[in-house]
Specification:
Blueprint lengths: L5 E4 L2 E4 L5 E3 L1 E3 L2 E3 L2 E2 L7 H16 L5 H4 L4 E5 L18 E5 L3
Parallel strand pairs: 3-7, 7-8
Antiparallel strand pairs: 1-2, 3-6, 4-5
């Protein structure tokens, strides 16, 4: 959905070409949102491998700033904790967030 690939830019919405997707990762005392760059060009297996690496380094607090800044859209998953549904909070500048609960 190209129109959803956008960020808040002050008083306007800026539409982007690359699909950089932030994924919420819980860490002790907070949350990191590492970004999967150019997600639209990668296979599901590539995205999975990248996310596992980013999540592990986020938990160890070894991410570089460019790895958790940016993104136009975010995903938050609490399904693995048995939560059926929840309301995720959009963190600007992200244009949207997907809240994933247990199936």
């Amino acid at each position: 959905m190209p129109d959803a690939n956008a960020v808040w830019a002050g008083d306007r919405v800026l539409r982007l070409t690359p699909s950089d997707v932030a994924v919420a990762v819980a860490v002790e005392g907070g949350l990191f949102t590492p970004v999967l760059k150019d997600a639209e060009t990668k296979s599901l297996s590539t995205l999975s491998a990248e996310m596992k690496d980013l999540a592990g380094r986020a938990r160890d607090r070894r991410l570089a700033p460019h790895e958790y800044q940016g993104g136009s859209f975010a995903i938050s998953n609490l399904g693995m904790y048995g939560i059926d549904n929840f309301d995720a909070v959009i963190n600007p500048p992200h244009g949207g967030i997907l809240a994933v609960g247990a199936g």
